[in-house]
Write a structure and sequence with these properties.
mainly alpha, single chain, elongated
Length: 55
């Protein structure tokens, strides 16, 4: 009985993990070719302020 429950739980877990596809995470616009801002496309990020008391 324990083996059957373990098997059922394993199958359920695998179905849950592998059921999502990357295309299902879109915001409803499947097939859109909009450009998304990426590395270096926007203004440069300023450096963090210096830390005080470096002793």
């Amino acid at each position: 009985m324990k083996k059957i429950l373990l098997f059922a739980f394993t199958v359920f877990l695998n179905v849950f993990v592998f059921s999502c596809t990357p295309s299902s995470n879109d915001d409803g616009s499947s097939g859109s070719n909009e450009e998304v801002a990426c590395c270096g496309d926007d203004s440069p990020i300023p450096p963090p302020p210096p830390t005080g008391g470096g002793g």
